[in-house]
Each structure stands twice: as C-alpha cells, then as structure tokens.
Amino acid sequence: xxxxxxxxxxxxxxxxxxxxxxxxxxxxxxxxxxxxxxxxxxxxxxxxxxxxxxxxxxxxxxxxxxxxxxxxxxxxxxxxxxxxxxxxxxxxxxxxxxxxxxxxxxxxxxxxxxxxxxxxxxxxxxxxxxxxxxxxxxxxxxxxxxxxxxxxxxxxxxxxxxxxxxxxxxxxxxxxxxxxxxxxxxxxxxxxxxxxxxxxxxxxxxxxxxxxxxxxxxxxxxxxxxxxxxxxxxxxxxxxxxxxxxxxxxxxxxxxxxxxxxxxxxxxxxxxxxxxxxxxxxxxxxxxxxxxxxxxxxxxxxxxxxxxxxxxxxxxxxxxxxxxxxxxxxxxxxxxxxxxxxxxxxxxxxxxxxxxxxxxxxxxxxxxxxxxxxxxxxxxxxxxxxxxxxxxxxxxxxxxxxxxxxxxxxxxxxxxxxxxxxxxxxxxxxxxxxxxxxxxxxxxxxxxxxxxxxxxxxxxxxxxxxxxxxxxxxxxxxxxxxxxxxxxxxxxxxxxxxxxxxxxxxxxx
Length: 509
Hints:
It is a single chain. The chain contains 16 helices and 14 strands. It has a two-stranded antiparallel sheet. The relative contact order is 0.17. It has helices spanning about 5-15, 40, 45-50, 90-100, 125-130, 160-165, 250, 255-260, 300-315, 335, 355-365, 375-390, 455-460, 475-480, 485-495, 495-509, and strands spanning about 25, 30, 120, 150-155, 185, 195-205, 215-225, 235-240, 280, 290, 400, 415, 425, 445. The protein is an alpha+beta fold and about 500 residues long. It starts with a helix and ends with a helix. It is about 25% helix and about 10% strand. It is globular, with a radius of gyration of 23 Å.
C-alpha cells in the first residue's frame, strides 16, 4: 500500500465527518437523510452549498471522489484504477472483476466452457469493448461497424396490458416486436445479425456573440440490411454511446433523500429548471426506487445495469436476466434455438452469481482521478463562468455519500460529480422522441462531469453527449436546450476569454 494512502483517507474522511447535505424542503415535501444525526445535518451548509469565492479552490476540491480518489499518474489508464481507500483484500476482487470485464466471450458449444454462451445476437464480445479503457464509447467511423454505440428500439403501447405494464413500471418500454429492445449488429455462426445502424450528419452553424461560428453536427439515424423483415412503422430509435465507468459506486451511495430534495418537477421556485426523479422498479426486490444509471436513469443499481448489459450487449444470461438467448425475439426462431453456454453443474445461467458480483464490484470501484490545475487562475475564472451561467442548477457540484452505503470505502465521502442525478428536458435539438420509464423523449439524466477533461487522454477521442455528436466540449454546450437554454445562451454571449476559461475549467475536472 502506498505510504500516502492512510493519511489521504484520514484527511478526507475527517472533512466528510463534518459535511453532509442538510434536510431540504421543496414543494412542501421534506426530504431528510435517515443516516445522519441532527448535529451532522446542522453542520453541512458550508460544504454543500454552491461556491461564492472564486479566487481560490475550495477545500478538498482537488479530490473529487473523497478518499477514493485516484492520485496515480495521468495516462491512458487513468480511469482503470481501484478506489484508493480500498483494502488489499478488495484489490484481489477488483482484479478478478477486471479480468471478467475484459473477458472475450465465445459462441457455444466451445472447449472453453467458462467463456462460451456469446449471443446468439450481440453488440460486443466483452464489457471492455464498449467501455474502452473504462471510458466512454464513440460513434463508428465511416465504413466501420459500431461497437461502443448502439440503437435502442421500442414502440408505443397498443394494448391495455402494455399500458398497464408501463404504468406499473413492470416495463420501462415496449420492445419492437421483431428486433427487441436493441439492434444487434453481430451474430454467432449460423445466425444472421439483425442489421446495422446508419448515421448521416448535416452541418448546423451557430454564431456566437462575438461573431465566431461553431459548426455543430446534426445526426439522422436509420437502420439498414435488416435480416428478419421490416421493423414496425412506429418504431422509435435512440442512439447511445457507452458511458464512462468511473465513480459509479459513489453515485450509487448518494442518499436518496438528497436526490429527491433537488427535484422540482413543477418548477415551483421559478428558475426555469424542473428536474424530476426517475422512479423504476428494482428487479431484485420488486420495489420502486430511484433510477440512477443509464442515459435516461432507468436502472436502479450497478448490479442491475451490469446484468442488463450482459444480456443486451453480449447475450450472456445472469441470475437477474436469465434468458440464455439474450435479446432474441420470438420472431427469431433460429436465434432462440441456438446452443447456450449454460452448464448445469454451475447453475442455470451462463454467468453465475459470483461472476456478476465480481463485475459489479469492479464497476463500483473504478476510481475518479484527482483534479488538475484547480488553483490555476484561468480555471478559477472558468469555474466562476460555469456558476454564473447557471450550469450548477443541473450539474450540482457536491454530495456526501451515505453512512449506510454497502461498501465501507464508499461511505460518507465528500464527492464532486457535478450532477443532480435527475431527469431534465434538454430541448428539441437533443430529443430522441422515445419515452422510457419516467423520461420523456426530450428528457435525459444530468451527465456527471467528473473525469470529462481526460476523455481524449483515455479514449483517444473527444466525442460527447448521448450519441457522440459533439466533437468538443463547446459543441456539447451549444447543443443544450430546454431547461438549459439560459445556460447555453449565457455561454454564447460570453467573450472568447471567458468561454475559453469555462472550457479550461471543464478540462480540469
């Protein structure tokens, strides 16, 4: 263990002991944390309220994940480090989870019994294929088959039974009848891939207040080479790139009351921002809870997210999603009849519980890298611009995680994700017109910003937003609309010095 680790843990943990979000009342409803004493609740405003002094960094601002922050050298492995305050015993689990995250699955039957069961339809052969170096996905290059980006599919409900399942949150969407909930562009031998995604970009120039012109890419999506007949006429398509993996366990450890306290669905405070909580049904418990993960916040936990990715992306069954044929629909007979990788001596699924648990642990403990240049004058100026433009209305800087988080290393940490974990209307420009769960076709979960400045370092590219259409952070800002219109217009009205400073701040995260 590095000599500095115990000291780092002690310093940040002491800060956390005196810092936790206060009970909040919004819209007449009180949201009180049940994991803290009254004394704790009264001592928190100084650290959780927005900054007002931009002449210097805030205390512990350089450590965005508290004691779990990685202080390793910044390089292509910056997103692949374990939470810095985990034990040596936990490092063994992390390394095993990493090996499974990187494992390439093969089709059945195979001599490699521990690795067969791929597909029959799939988008990738390994988790790492989508989350390259544990970072974000990207759109395919011209002529390339997409791997870390895919199309979600659904249709409007047509029967009372379908409407009831959506209302009860048994389903979050109705899959396309033939192609299911996701277009798979790869298949095992003997089975045809479903088809391929097509993308066309049109240029959309935006003129800033000082006359500078920024050209945005406006994408249009379609499908081609469909192998199982036409899709439904009313199919809704939504492109998604894979999200970065860092800090997920800490986001999972944010107290539910703190997220609910930020919601203002009717905009009762009149600030033009009306974030709402995504309510989903947890398949493990059957209970309604907060959706935290995915672009539309439709998944309640990292374990569920991992199980759904195993099934939808790779075609591997787990104890939470047990179909060995993955996304094969009833209309795809050959696909459903293909051999599976289930080994009865190990259980009834292709990736038994211990495998899912190890991948989950790995995903929970990918550390957020330390900030860079937090005291730089340009970065501090950019931070002030970020606040003055109103970006923090959605990209909330700070939380303190729960004292009752399952993993001790993730408990009671002062963290800086720059997200409120809520759904917001992002306007027509970013709309996919595909409702999922509580999210409308214009709503998206606020994307956490920590680590965003290392995207090119880790992934060798800089594509942002849910479909990678933005090639720069500036383009990503200029695509904001809906509840973020005022923030976008404030950015566009800045002089170049202030715009450059705001980008420098984002690059420091």
